Amino acid sequence: MHTVRVFMLLVAAAAPAAAMVFATSPVFAQSSVLSRALRLDNSGQHDEAIALYRQVLAGNARSYEGHYGIARALDLKGSYSEAREHFAKAIELATDDGSRDQALRMMGVSWTFVGDARQATPFFKRVFDRRVAAGDFAGAAEEANEIGRVLLELGDVNGAQQWYRTGFDTARRDVKQSAGDRDLATLRWAHAQARIAIRRGNRAEAQRQMTVVKSLVDKGANPDQRVQYPYLAGYVAFYAKDYKRAVAELRQADQADPFILLLTAESYDQLGDASHARDYYRKVLSSNSHAVNNALARPVALRKLGSR
Q: Which CATH number fits domain 23-93: 3.10.450.50, 1.10.1200.10, 1.25.40.10, 3.30.9.10?
Protein backbone atom coordinates (compact mmCIF):
# COMPACT_ATOMS: atom_id res chain seq x y z
CA MET A 1 0.00 0.00 0.00
CA HIS A 2 1.37 3.41 -0.93
CA THR A 3 2.70 5.52 1.94
CA VAL A 4 0.37 8.45 1.11
CA ARG A 5 -2.67 6.15 1.22
CA VAL A 6 -1.61 4.71 4.57
CA PHE A 7 -1.21 8.26 5.92
CA MET A 8 -4.67 9.27 4.69
CA LEU A 9 -6.25 6.18 6.30
CA LEU A 10 -4.54 6.92 9.60
CA VAL A 11 -5.70 10.55 9.44
CA ALA A 12 -9.26 9.44 8.71
CA ALA A 13 -9.22 6.97 11.61
CA ALA A 14 -7.89 9.62 13.95
CA ALA A 15 -10.12 12.42 12.64
CA PRO A 16 -12.16 13.06 15.83
CA ALA A 17 -9.06 13.21 18.01
CA ALA A 18 -7.16 15.27 15.43
CA ALA A 19 -10.02 17.74 15.11
CA MET A 20 -9.97 18.25 18.88
CA VAL A 21 -6.20 18.84 18.90
CA PHE A 22 -6.29 21.29 16.00
CA ALA A 23 -9.30 23.14 17.41
CA THR A 24 -7.43 23.80 20.64
CA SER A 25 -4.11 24.60 18.94
CA PRO A 26 -3.11 28.29 19.28
CA VAL A 27 -1.80 28.24 15.70
CA PHE A 28 -5.05 26.79 14.36
CA ALA A 29 -7.10 29.28 16.40
CA GLN A 30 -5.06 32.23 15.15
CA SER A 31 -5.38 31.05 11.57
CA SER A 32 -9.14 30.75 11.98
CA VAL A 33 -9.40 34.28 13.37
CA LEU A 34 -7.24 35.67 10.55
CA SER A 35 -9.46 33.98 7.97
CA ARG A 36 -12.59 35.44 9.55
CA ALA A 37 -11.00 38.88 9.74
CA LEU A 38 -10.08 38.79 6.05
CA ARG A 39 -13.60 37.74 5.07
CA LEU A 40 -15.06 40.60 7.10
CA ASP A 41 -12.60 43.08 5.59
CA ASN A 42 -13.38 41.93 2.05
CA SER A 43 -17.10 42.34 2.72
CA GLY A 44 -16.64 45.93 3.92
CA GLN A 45 -16.98 45.21 7.65
CA HIS A 46 -13.72 46.93 8.50
CA ASP A 47 -14.38 47.67 12.19
CA GLU A 48 -15.23 44.04 12.87
CA ALA A 49 -12.13 42.89 10.96
CA ILE A 50 -9.91 45.32 12.88
CA ALA A 51 -11.23 43.98 16.19
CA LEU A 52 -10.28 40.43 15.18
CA TYR A 53 -6.84 41.50 13.97
CA ARG A 54 -6.26 43.21 17.33
CA GLN A 55 -7.18 39.93 19.00
CA VAL A 56 -4.53 38.13 16.93
CA LEU A 57 -1.88 40.75 17.73
CA ALA A 58 -2.72 40.62 21.44
CA GLY A 59 -1.76 36.96 21.34
CA ASN A 60 1.20 37.36 19.00
CA ALA A 61 2.61 40.86 18.57
CA ARG A 62 5.00 39.57 15.90
CA SER A 63 2.36 38.17 13.56
CA TYR A 64 3.15 39.33 10.01
CA GLU A 65 -0.35 38.40 8.90
CA GLY A 66 -1.90 40.28 11.81
CA HIS A 67 0.01 43.51 11.12
CA TYR A 68 -0.50 43.25 7.35
CA GLY A 69 -4.21 42.51 7.66
CA ILE A 70 -5.03 45.22 10.19
CA ALA A 71 -3.07 47.79 8.16
CA ARG A 72 -5.13 46.97 5.09
CA ALA A 73 -8.41 47.27 7.02
CA LEU A 74 -7.35 50.52 8.71
CA ASP A 75 -6.59 52.14 5.34
CA LEU A 76 -10.01 51.16 4.01
CA LYS A 77 -11.61 52.56 7.17
CA GLY A 78 -9.64 55.80 6.74
CA SER A 79 -7.25 55.42 9.69
CA TYR A 80 -4.24 56.00 7.49
CA SER A 81 -1.56 56.91 10.02
CA GLU A 82 -2.17 53.82 12.16
CA ALA A 83 -2.30 51.68 9.01
CA ARG A 84 1.23 52.76 8.08
CA GLU A 85 2.51 51.86 11.55
CA HIS A 86 1.34 48.30 11.01
CA PHE A 87 2.65 48.10 7.43
CA ALA A 88 6.04 49.21 8.76
CA LYS A 89 5.92 46.36 11.26
CA ALA A 90 4.90 43.89 8.54
CA ILE A 91 7.89 44.98 6.44
CA GLU A 92 10.15 44.39 9.45
CA LEU A 93 8.65 40.95 10.16
CA ALA A 94 8.59 39.62 6.58
CA THR A 95 10.57 36.41 6.29
CA ASP A 96 10.91 36.21 2.50
CA ASP A 97 11.19 38.51 -0.51
CA GLY A 98 7.63 37.85 -1.64
CA SER A 99 5.96 38.88 1.61
CA ARG A 100 8.35 41.81 2.04
CA ASP A 101 7.68 43.05 -1.48
CA GLN A 102 3.94 42.84 -0.87
CA ALA A 103 4.18 44.79 2.38
CA LEU A 104 6.41 47.41 0.72
CA ARG A 105 3.95 47.83 -2.14
CA MET A 106 1.04 48.15 0.26
CA MET A 107 2.93 50.80 2.22
CA GLY A 108 3.24 52.68 -1.07
CA VAL A 109 -0.50 52.24 -1.60
CA SER A 110 -1.11 53.48 1.95
CA TRP A 111 0.72 56.74 1.20
CA THR A 112 -1.27 56.97 -2.04
CA PHE A 113 -4.49 56.93 -0.01
CA VAL A 114 -3.42 60.26 1.50
CA GLY A 115 -2.21 61.66 -1.83
CA ASP A 116 1.50 61.74 -0.96
CA ALA A 117 3.45 60.57 -4.01
CA ARG A 118 6.78 61.68 -2.53
CA GLN A 119 6.39 59.31 0.41
CA ALA A 120 4.82 56.51 -1.65
CA THR A 121 7.44 56.30 -4.41
CA PRO A 122 10.43 54.99 -2.37
CA PHE A 123 8.46 51.94 -1.21
CA PHE A 124 7.44 50.99 -4.74
CA LYS A 125 10.99 51.69 -5.93
CA ARG A 126 12.49 49.25 -3.42
CA VAL A 127 10.40 46.51 -5.02
CA PHE A 128 11.38 47.69 -8.50
CA ASP A 129 15.09 47.66 -7.62
CA ARG A 130 14.97 44.18 -6.09
CA ARG A 131 13.13 42.75 -9.09
CA VAL A 132 15.65 44.26 -11.50
CA ALA A 133 18.50 42.83 -9.42
CA ALA A 134 16.82 39.41 -9.51
CA GLY A 135 16.38 39.57 -13.29
CA ASP A 136 12.58 39.73 -12.99
CA PHE A 137 12.21 42.38 -15.67
CA ALA A 138 8.50 41.76 -16.27
CA GLY A 139 7.77 42.22 -12.56
CA ALA A 140 10.02 45.27 -12.38
CA ALA A 141 8.25 46.82 -15.38
CA GLU A 142 4.89 46.39 -13.67
CA GLU A 143 6.25 48.17 -10.60
CA ALA A 144 7.65 51.04 -12.69
CA ASN A 145 4.24 51.43 -14.32
CA GLU A 146 2.60 51.44 -10.89
CA ILE A 147 4.86 54.30 -9.84
CA GLY A 148 4.05 56.10 -13.09
CA ARG A 149 0.34 55.85 -12.43
CA VAL A 150 0.61 57.14 -8.86
CA LEU A 151 2.69 60.10 -10.00
CA LEU A 152 0.37 60.93 -12.90
CA GLU A 153 -2.82 60.89 -10.86
CA LEU A 154 -1.22 62.82 -8.00
CA GLY A 155 -0.04 65.58 -10.33
CA ASP A 156 3.58 64.83 -11.25
CA VAL A 157 3.20 64.42 -15.01
CA ASN A 158 6.92 64.65 -15.81
CA GLY A 159 7.81 62.09 -13.16
CA ALA A 160 5.06 59.83 -14.48
CA GLN A 161 6.47 59.97 -17.98
CA GLN A 162 9.94 59.02 -16.73
CA TRP A 163 8.67 56.02 -14.80
CA TYR A 164 6.35 54.80 -17.54
CA ARG A 165 9.29 55.02 -19.95
CA THR A 166 11.37 53.05 -17.43
CA GLY A 167 8.63 50.43 -17.35
CA PHE A 168 8.67 50.07 -21.13
CA ASP A 169 12.47 49.93 -21.32
CA THR A 170 12.66 47.44 -18.46
CA ALA A 171 10.11 45.11 -20.06
CA ARG A 172 12.21 45.05 -23.24
CA ARG A 173 15.21 43.77 -21.25
CA ASP A 174 13.51 40.39 -20.90
CA VAL A 175 15.22 38.20 -23.52
CA LYS A 176 12.47 35.58 -23.15
CA GLN A 177 9.72 38.07 -23.95
CA SER A 178 7.17 36.63 -26.40
CA ALA A 179 5.66 38.55 -29.30
CA GLY A 180 2.47 38.95 -27.28
CA ASP A 181 4.44 40.29 -24.32
CA ARG A 182 6.18 42.79 -26.59
CA ASP A 183 2.80 43.97 -27.87
CA LEU A 184 1.57 44.28 -24.28
CA ALA A 185 4.55 46.42 -23.26
CA THR A 186 4.02 48.66 -26.29
CA LEU A 187 0.30 48.90 -25.58
CA ARG A 188 0.92 49.94 -21.98
CA TRP A 189 3.47 52.55 -23.01
CA ALA A 190 1.12 54.02 -25.65
CA HIS A 191 -1.77 53.94 -23.15
CA ALA A 192 0.36 55.89 -20.67
CA GLN A 193 1.52 58.38 -23.29
CA ALA A 194 -2.08 59.10 -24.29
CA ARG A 195 -3.04 59.84 -20.68
CA ILE A 196 0.07 61.96 -20.15
CA ALA A 197 -0.59 63.90 -23.37
CA ILE A 198 -4.19 64.78 -22.48
CA ARG A 199 -3.12 65.85 -18.98
CA ARG A 200 -0.75 68.26 -20.72
CA GLY A 201 -3.57 69.48 -22.93
CA ASN A 202 -2.15 67.89 -26.10
CA ARG A 203 -5.26 66.37 -27.69
CA ALA A 204 -3.57 65.55 -30.99
CA GLU A 205 -0.86 63.46 -29.32
CA ALA A 206 -3.42 61.79 -27.09
CA GLN A 207 -5.45 60.79 -30.15
CA ARG A 208 -2.34 59.52 -31.93
CA GLN A 209 -1.44 57.28 -29.01
CA MET A 210 -5.05 56.10 -28.72
CA THR A 211 -4.80 54.91 -32.32
CA VAL A 212 -1.72 52.86 -31.41
CA VAL A 213 -3.56 51.30 -28.46
CA LYS A 214 -6.60 50.52 -30.61
CA SER A 215 -4.50 48.81 -33.26
CA LEU A 216 -2.76 46.64 -30.66
CA VAL A 217 -6.05 45.76 -28.97
CA ASP A 218 -7.59 44.83 -32.33
CA LYS A 219 -4.56 42.71 -33.15
CA GLY A 220 -5.83 40.31 -30.50
CA ALA A 221 -2.54 39.11 -29.00
CA ASN A 222 -3.75 40.22 -25.56
CA PRO A 223 -7.57 39.83 -25.54
CA ASP A 224 -7.77 40.59 -21.82
CA GLN A 225 -6.63 44.14 -22.63
CA ARG A 226 -9.71 45.00 -24.74
CA VAL A 227 -11.37 46.59 -21.74
CA GLN A 228 -8.45 49.02 -21.48
CA TYR A 229 -9.48 50.91 -24.62
CA PRO A 230 -12.85 52.29 -23.40
CA TYR A 231 -11.11 53.26 -20.15
CA LEU A 232 -8.51 55.19 -22.15
CA ALA A 233 -11.12 56.76 -24.43
CA GLY A 234 -13.15 57.82 -21.40
CA TYR A 235 -10.09 59.17 -19.62
CA VAL A 236 -9.06 61.27 -22.62
CA ALA A 237 -12.63 62.52 -23.09
CA PHE A 238 -12.85 63.47 -19.41
CA TYR A 239 -9.70 65.60 -19.50
CA ALA A 240 -10.79 67.05 -22.85
CA LYS A 241 -13.95 68.15 -20.98
CA ASP A 242 -16.20 66.07 -23.23
CA TYR A 243 -18.08 64.64 -20.26
CA LYS A 244 -20.96 63.12 -22.19
CA ARG A 245 -18.57 61.05 -24.25
CA ALA A 246 -16.54 60.24 -21.15
CA VAL A 247 -19.60 58.67 -19.51
CA ALA A 248 -20.44 56.69 -22.64
CA GLU A 249 -16.92 55.27 -22.90
CA LEU A 250 -16.31 54.67 -19.21
CA ARG A 251 -19.53 52.72 -18.81
CA GLN A 252 -18.08 50.21 -21.29
CA ALA A 253 -14.90 49.84 -19.23
CA ASP A 254 -14.30 47.62 -16.19
CA GLN A 255 -17.19 48.34 -13.81
CA ALA A 256 -15.35 46.70 -10.92
CA ASP A 257 -12.50 49.22 -11.12
CA PRO A 258 -13.07 51.97 -8.51
CA PHE A 259 -10.95 54.50 -10.41
CA ILE A 260 -13.10 54.09 -13.52
CA LEU A 261 -16.21 54.43 -11.35
CA LEU A 262 -14.74 57.63 -9.88
CA LEU A 263 -14.12 59.14 -13.33
CA THR A 264 -17.70 58.24 -14.26
CA ALA A 265 -19.03 59.90 -11.10
CA GLU A 266 -16.97 63.04 -11.73
CA SER A 267 -18.18 63.15 -15.34
CA TYR A 268 -21.78 63.04 -14.17
CA ASP A 269 -20.95 65.79 -11.68
CA GLN A 270 -19.64 67.97 -14.50
CA LEU A 271 -22.83 67.29 -16.46
CA GLY A 272 -24.90 68.49 -13.51
CA ASP A 273 -26.40 65.04 -12.92
CA ALA A 274 -26.06 64.85 -9.13
CA SER A 275 -28.17 61.70 -8.79
CA HIS A 276 -26.05 59.54 -11.11
CA ALA A 277 -22.86 61.08 -9.68
CA ARG A 278 -23.92 60.08 -6.17
CA ASP A 279 -24.73 56.55 -7.35
CA TYR A 280 -21.25 56.15 -8.83
CA TYR A 281 -19.48 57.62 -5.82
CA ARG A 282 -21.29 54.99 -3.74
CA LYS A 283 -20.18 52.30 -6.17
CA VAL A 284 -16.59 53.40 -5.60
CA LEU A 285 -17.02 52.72 -1.89
CA SER A 286 -18.27 49.20 -2.58
CA SER A 287 -14.71 48.25 -3.55
CA ASN A 288 -12.65 46.80 -0.71
CA SER A 289 -9.44 46.31 -2.62
CA HIS A 290 -6.18 47.65 -1.23
CA ALA A 291 -4.65 48.75 -4.52
CA VAL A 292 -3.55 51.91 -6.27
CA ASN A 293 -6.79 52.38 -8.19
CA ASN A 294 -8.83 52.29 -4.97
CA ALA A 295 -6.31 54.44 -3.10
CA LEU A 296 -6.78 57.09 -5.78
CA ALA A 297 -10.58 56.79 -5.84
CA ARG A 298 -11.90 55.97 -2.37
CA PRO A 299 -10.81 59.14 -0.49
CA VAL A 300 -12.27 61.34 -3.24
CA ALA A 301 -15.60 59.49 -3.16
CA LEU A 302 -15.74 59.79 0.64
CA ARG A 303 -15.16 63.56 0.40
CA LYS A 304 -17.74 63.97 -2.35
CA LEU A 305 -20.44 62.03 -0.51
CA GLY A 306 -19.63 63.81 2.73
CA SER A 307 -20.28 67.17 1.05
CA ARG A 308 -23.74 66.20 -0.25
A: 1.25.40.10
